[in-house]
From TrEMBL, chain A:
One of its GO terms (biological process) is translation. This is Aspartyl/glutamyl-tRNA(Asn/Gln) amidotransferase subunit B. The keyword Nucleotide-binding applies. HAMAP family: GatB (MF_00121). The keyword Ligase applies. PROSITE patterns: GATB (PS01234). It comes from the Bacteria.
Automatic annotation (TrEMBL), chain B:
Coiled coil: none annotated. Allows the formation of correctly charged Asn-tRNA(Asn) or Gln-tRNA(Gln) through the transamidation of misacylated Asp-tRNA(Asn) or Glu-tRNA(Gln) in organisms which lack either or both of asparaginyl-tRNA or glutaminyl-tRNA synthetases. The reaction takes place in the presence of glutamine and ATP through an activated phospho-Asp-tRNA(Asn) or phospho-Glu-tRNA(Gln). GO terms for molecular function: asparaginyl-tRNA synthase (glutamine-hydrolyzing) activity; ATP binding; glutaminyl-tRNA synthase (glutamine-hydrolyzing) activity; transferase activity. InterPro entries: Asp/Glu-ADT_sf_sub_c, GatC. SUPFAM superfamilies: Glu-tRNAGln amidotransferase C subunit. NCBIfam families: gatC. One of its GO terms (biological process) is glutaminyl-tRNAGln biosynthesis via transamidation. This is Aspartyl/glutamyl-tRNA(Asn/Gln) amidotransferase subunit C. Heterotrimer of A, B and C subunits. It is an enzyme of class 6 (ligase). Keywords: ATP-binding, Ligase, Nucleotide-binding, Protein biosynthesis, Transferase. It catalyses: L-glutamyl-tRNA(Gln) + L-glutamine + ATP + H2O = L-glutaminyl-tRNA(Gln) + L-glutamate + ADP + phosphate + H(+); L-aspartyl-tRNA(Asn) + L-glutamine + ATP + H2O = L-asparaginyl-tRNA(Asn) + L-glutamate + ADP + phosphate + 2 H(+).
From TrEMBL, chain C:
The active site is at 79 (charge relay system), 154 (charge relay system), 178 (acyl-ester intermediate). The gene is gatA. It comes from Mycetocola reblochoni. Belongs to the amidase family. GatA subfamily. NCBIfam families: gatA (TIGR00132). This is Glutamyl-tRNA(Gln) amidotransferase subunit A.
Length: 500, 99, 503
């Protein structure tokens, strides 16, 4: 595969305006599939989560999963869409070994939701509105494994194996209108948009939305038009973009690749391209000869879905706060800087920080614990932060620090004890004897002892060289085995040194 | 006057994955030409004011609860498979050798 | 026909219930009859290896005092379009030869649960595309009245099996007349219920919005007894109706003994008769209408102006839906595989479908693909769906005036094998009378009314009722049956020629 010629990004932007479009597929986390009662679970033995419907066996018929419809309506509402008064399924006809009936049940002219918009936030904090054309229900295909090629690729494979466990898993496909005016920020817009969809889906609790697992899949459409031209350029559709970072990289790559072709007077082929995460390039996909003619027609085995106004209003009333609005509210409430909030948000820690604050912690302490020590441990152990410790326990520790019972250093030991299952924060403090010595008598004795042992330092302090006190403080803290409030010790050192 | 040509028949056969022989293309071109001519009359009365009927008995909102039911075993699933391996259905290469 | 096989299902059921006959005896008698005559008739594609075993278990349960259903122990022939776990299901196609379904069609499961004994799978036009069974990949079925003639189609096997006394009852499917037209040409009874009255789950789909499973029998009562067992809501078929159906057998009994014809408003559809209809068919039809009038029925002619577009609409909708329904036969998960050396998956699929489908199936798939193609959809498929609306309106207007509509079930009696097999248009026109009911979803029945004088072959009367009023068909159908029997001095089927072993 010859390497694509790429134009310098800034040069490309000078000559061309990028126009984007996205098709995001969301796998719904229902218990069963879209049209069959087979379990919708990941990672089972091949071809075990199947019924005659999933395999397209002769005589089998689909029946709509009502929960999938509700989830789809909720998602439509969260995308600001109108919900169709009447919606119906259609067959999309194309042959492919992972498509068991050789037609996919999808929606065509009457999608469940249409005409909405999603507000996204770019890294610089600016907001943009992405126009949504439609969101429709459909079923997923099976999974192909390619044999005999290199690295499991379809190219060069001698045969392929099909597992239909995924066939029929409910999907919602969210399609944007063309997105204009992103200019040099196109890659960031792509990333932010897909991230926003992920956040919305997660906030609704309708999908695990794990891109690496294919719960959320993005096809990125990119076209360029020369500056001053009205007509849209030919677009490519890049598939297999399986992380937010890849969305950003793939959009950037396509802009540079297409610009190089167009600048030399070439033409862009309308095609499907594949993103290669490892090499960071896109490559031409199989040109689908049937792609121009899916022969859609209303699915005769299924009836129209006519959501009642009551159902739609009920689902609307149950919508959670929009993730972006919530984030902006929390950031203001907590008084975080952009950077601080991004730390929390990018780590997926908004919920736990919020819960910790609700349990009494200060925002700063909650942020510090979760983005710091707890995240480090979770990463090291390869687990979710919520599996490390509960927000309530973190709030307890923060409260003990706040009250002066613990220093930061001691608090880390308490955290360790709590994680190790030694009980509540207070129980760990008690059991390990970790509380700060707040008895001035004991501290004064230790200070006096240290001053007596280091007369030269004492002299320096008395000469006004206050920074020399550090050595005394260190000795006292050591003597107290760290269980003293360093600030109080410092006060006492200066006080006693002056008093002698 | 029908627009059924051998090229169109070949295209339709390709869309529907039927590897027609040349004689079949010839006979189908003429048969379909006649058939299409006789069925095109539906357009005479299918005016804009008539709604389309896709289901003979109008029903709506037929769905099932999201509850897991009986599934096939892997053995049952593969029992009619012309070829299989590792619990999966096997098909020959999806892309041709030249690609 | 004498002996056990000569009994109707109702008569046999009564003797089974009274302990005068065992299911094993009844099943054996029918298996013997199949062995004797099916070499000539070719109604069966497969005869069950388990029938006697099933019959024995029914006898044992009866002997143990178990309360069994009204048809328990009665043998049943099953059209090969319905999938069965204990017998292959091919839908008459080479591409499904030997296919064993891991599940039973709902109607088969209900029949088993009711104690019916599956005898075997009956022949049919490939994927139910045809009106003669000549499009079966496994050779045509022959009409028991004249072995050189077609038994109708697509369900010629089920009708012939019942007409030849190889089974008292059979299950069929009717997409454009596949139950009613074979009944017409074989002197038997066939019912296409209201769309959605009987589950389609496990019926290998031809055209989803037209297909309907129904009973095939020698009497109206027998059909009602079978419909009672198979009808009713099925959660595996979204188009299945939740209606609480009355007993069709009870309706048939009422019709046979009562005066349901007195005051009945009967409509003759102007467009379903006249030119193109065989003289003897017209004659028997007219005589029957006169008998209805004599029995007190008010007969009026009604107009259904859009019926002339029905065949055209049907031959767009059916191929369109069929082209999609039959896409699953790709040799990946089941069925025939033809894999030329070095073939890609796509080439394998194309080679398999070329080898596995017969000419009529290919014709309709290509036609349906054309009708759905971008650029043609609105003109063809879209227009056909509008014609469907117009035909429904014609029916609504007609049923505002009358209780039932009647017509000859088909324009001609059984035509000779080979006469139309290479003339698809002529074959398609054979369905002109039966297609409107499928397009509108309404129920229809064919009841034998006599033999056409010119060829001594059976003629049937089609009766149609509004959707959901299947019971009306059974009531009126049984009344017509009684009138005809009275006029003939016996059943029509008793005049069928003896076959093979019975000679």
């Amino acid at each position: 595969m010859a390497a694509d010629k790429l134009m310098d990004y800034d040069a490309a932007l000078e000559l061309f305006e990028p126009v984007l479009g996205f098709e995001v597929h969301v796998e719904l986390g229902t218990k069963t599939k879209m049209f069959s009662h087979a379990p919708n679970v990941f990672g089972s033995e091949p071809n075990t989560n199947v019924t005659p419907v999933c395999l397209g066996l002769p005589g089998s018929l689909p029946v709509v999963n009502e929960q999938a419809v509700r989830y789809s309506i909720s998602l439509g509402l969260a995308l600001g869409c109108q919900i169709a008064a009447s919606s119906r399924f259609a067959r999309k006809n194309y042959f492919y070994p992972d498509n068991p009936k050789n037609y996919q049940i999808s929606q065509y002219d009457e999608p469940i939701a249409f005409e909405g918009s999603v507000e996204i936030e770019l890294p610089d904090g600016s907001l943009r509105t992405i126009p949504i054309e439609r969101a429709h229900m459909e079923e997923d295909a099976g999974k192909l494994t390619h044999l005999g090629g290199s690295g499991g690729r379809i190219q060069g494979a001698s045969s392929s194996l099909v597992d239909y466990n995924r066939a029929g898993v409910p999907l919602v496909e969210i399609v944007t209108h063309p997105i204009f005016g992103t200019e040099a920020l196109a890659p960031e817009v792509g990333r932010a948009y897909v991230g926003a969809i992920r956040d919305i889906v997660l906030s609704l609790g309708i999908s695990e939305a794990k891109m690496e697992r294919g719960n959320l899949r993005c096809d990125a459409n990119v076209s360029l038009r020369p500056r001053g031209q009205e007509k849209l350029g030919t677009r490519t559709e890049t598939k297999n973009v399986n992380s937010l970072r890849s969305v950003e990289r793939a959009v950037r790559y396509e802009i540079q690749r297409q610009a190089a072709i167009l600048a030399e007077g070439g033409t862009i082929t309308q095609e499907t391209r594949h993103w290669h995460e490892d090499t960071g390039v896109t490559s031409s996909g199989r040109p689908k000869s049937d792609a121009d003619d899916y022969r859609y027609f209303p699915e005769p085995d299924l009836l129209p879905v006519v959501p009642s106004a009551e159902l739609v209003e009920q689902l609307r009333s149950e919508l959670p706060e929009q993730p972006l609005a919530r984030r902006r509210r929390l950031k203001a409430d907590w008084g975080f800087t952009d950077l601080e909030f991004q730390d929390v948000a990018n780590g997926g820690l908004v919920d736990v920080v919020e819960a910790t604050i609700a349990a009494g912690s200060s925002p700063a302490a909650a942020r510090k614990w979760w983005t710091g020590e707890i995240s480090r441990r979770a990463n090291a152990d390869g687990v979710e932060v919520t599996e490390v410790i509960q927000p309530e326990r973190v709030a307890e520790i923060a409260a003990l620090v706040e009250a002066g019972t613990l220093t930061d250093k001691l608090a880390r030991q308490v955290l360790e004890g709590v994680i190790a299952g030694e009980g509540t924060a207070q129980e760990v403090v008690d059991a390990r004897g970790l509380a700060v010595v707040s008895d001035d008598g004991a501290l004064i004795a230790a200070v006096d002892e240290a001053l007596a042992a280091q007369p030269d330092v004492l002299a320096k302090i008395r000469d006004g060289k206050v920074q020399a006190a550090g050595a005394i403080i260190g000795s006292v803290m050591k003597a107290m085995r760290g269980q003293a409030d360093a600030a109080r010790v410092r006060e006492l050192v200066l006080e006693r040194a002056a008093a002698e | 006057m029908s627009d059924i040509t051998p090229e169109l028949v070949r295209h339709l056969a390709s869309l529907s994955r039927i590897d027609l022989h040349d004689e079949e293309v010839t006979s189908l071109t003429s048969e379909l030409g006649q058939i299409v001519e006789s069925i095109a009359k539906v357009q005479e009365v299918a005016t804009d004011d008539v709604v389309a009927t896709s289901h003979p008995i109008p029903l709506q909102n037929v769905s099932r609860p999201d509850e897991v039911g009986e599934t096939l075993t892997q053995e049952q699933a593969l029992s009619n498979a012309p070829d299989s391996a590792d619990g999966r259905f096997r098909v020959p290469a999806i892309l041709g050798g030249e690609q | 026909m004498s002996g056990i096989v000569g009994l109707t299902a109702a008569q046999l059921a009564e003797r089974l219930g009274a302990g005068e006959v065992s299911s094993v005896e009844a099943t054996s008698a029918h298996l013997d009859r199949i062995a004797a005559v099916d070499g000539d008739v070719n109604a069966f594609l497969h005869v069950s290896d388990h029938a006697l075993e099933v019959a024995r278990s029914i006898d044992d349960r009866r002997a143990a005092g178990e309360e069994l259903g009204p048809l328990a122990g009665v043998p049943l022939a099953i059209k090969d379009v319905l999938v069965t776990t204990d017998m292959p299901s091919t839908s008459g196609s080479r591409i499904l030869e030997g296919y064993m379904s891991p599940y039973d069609a709902t109607v088969v499961a209900r029949s088993r649960a009711a104690g019916l004994v599956p005898l075997g799978k009956t022949n049919m036009d490939e994927f139910a595309m045809g009106s003669s069974t000549e499009h079966s990949a496994f050779g045509p079925t022959r009409n028991p009245w004249d072995l050189s003639r077609i038994p109708g189609g697509s369900g010629g096997g089920s009708a012939a099996a019942v007409a030849a006394f190889e089974a008292p009852l059979a299950l069929g499917s009717d997409t454009g007349g596949s139950i009613r037209q074979p009944a017409h040409v074989t002197g038997t009874v066939g019912v296409k219920p209201t769309y959605g009255a009987v589950s389609r789950y496990g019926s290998i789909a031809l055209a989803s919005s037209l297909d309907q499973v129904g009973p095939v029998s020698r009497t109206v009562l027998d059909a009602g007894l079978l419909q009672d067992i198979v009808q009713g809501h099925d959660r595996f078929d979204s188009t299945s109706l939740t209606t609480q159906w009355p007993s069709m057998a009870e309706a048939a009994r009422e019709g046979a003994r009562g005066d349901v014809l007195d005051g009945l408003r009967v409509g003759i559809v102007r467009q379903l008769g006249g030119e193109g209809f065989q003289a003897g068919v017209r004659q028997r039809f007219t005589e029957t209408v006169e008998m209805l009038q004599a029995a007190g029925a008010e007969v009026v002619e009604v107009d259904a102006p859009h019926f002339e577009y029905a065949v055209a609409a049907y031959y767009l909708i059916l191929p369109a839906e069929a082209s999609s329904n039959l896409a699953k036969f790709d040799s990946v998960r089941f069925g025939l595989r033809v894999e030329p050396a070095g073939a890609t998956s796509e080439q394998m699929m194309s080679a398999t479908r070329e080898a596995g489908f017969g000419p009529e199936v290919k014709r309709r798939i290509i036609l349906g693909t054309y009708a759905l193609s971008s650029g043609y959809y609105a003109a063809y498929y879209g227009s056909a769906q509008k014609v469907r609306t117009l035909i429904q309106r014609d029916f609504s207007a007609a049923f505002a005036q009358v209780d039932v509509l009647v017509s000859p079930t088909a324009p001609t009696t059984a035509f000779p094998l080979g006469e139309r097999v290479n003339d698809p248009l002529a074959m398609y026109l054979n369905d002109v009378t039966t297609i409107p009911a499928n397009l509108a979803g309404i129920p229809g029945i064919s009841v034998p009314i006599g033999l056409a004088p010119e060829d001594s072959l059976p003629v049937g009367l089609q009766i149609m009722a509004p959707a959901y009023r299947d019971d009306r068909l059974y009531r009126v159908g049984a009344a017509v049956e009684a009138l005809v029997e009275n006029a003939l001095g016996g059943t029509l089927i008793s005049r069928a020629p003896a076959l093979g072993g019975a000679r």
